[in-house]
Amino acid sequence: MNIFKKLLLPMFLLGISVVPMTSCDDDDDDYYYAGYYGNVGLVTVKPVGENDCYLWLDDSTTLYPVNFNGAPYGDKEVRALVGFSPVEGSTGKYTMNVIVNWMDSIRTKSTVPTLGEQNDEKYGKDPIEIVNDWVTIAEDGYLTLRFRTLSNRTGSVHYVNLLTGVDPNDQYTVELRHDARGDVTGVYTDGMIAFNLKDLPDTNGETVKLTLKWKGYEAEKSVTFDYCTRRSTENGTTNAPIDVQSLMLNLE
Fold first, then answer.
1. What is the pTM of this model?
2. How far apart are CA 250 and CA 227, in angstroms?
3. Left if phi > 0, otherwise alpha if psi is -120 to 50, otherwise beta: which for 236?
């Protein structure tokens, strides 16, 4: 297996930029990052039966966590950041065995349908920025985003939603909405969120352009991703939305 690796500082010390971006297309060579702090991957934790799981890294790479005692999230599927170390041994149907050094689950939600003129009232209209980072990606039936917003970090809950049906001429155009619930000053704070795209029309194996729109701090913005409806998991698990821990911000 030829895995292309990149050296990096810890994730939140990376030299990053805030969009506008022209493209965030998935690069099939970038499976995970490796450096002084170990291997870091963005994965889907997929249950197998009631007491086992594996980690989906990309369409051709699956990781089996040999140090897990059961499935950490039960029968729920979870998007997560994971630090891992490959280990020797028979891998069976998986690509490699790994020891999971740490795992941080990502807040995962379903999309919601647009309400037209009621969107501002229901979903908010506060600005938000999408960070051009390796974890901002459409893959495995999810749109995972690293975002940035002002916050006083006082424990206020920020509501972030992904709306479908916003463009009658393009069913693969979605809109990110942010309701800061009054927490609109302070310092720029990052968070991560993942959206389950199971309610978008099936692409029937084709790759299409998924357009994401949002209100930035200075202008309305958009970016496109390559998107293909996810393949079924081997044990029939669907992309059921779950409540999992957010990063840095209180999210809903």
1. 0.79
2. 28
3. left
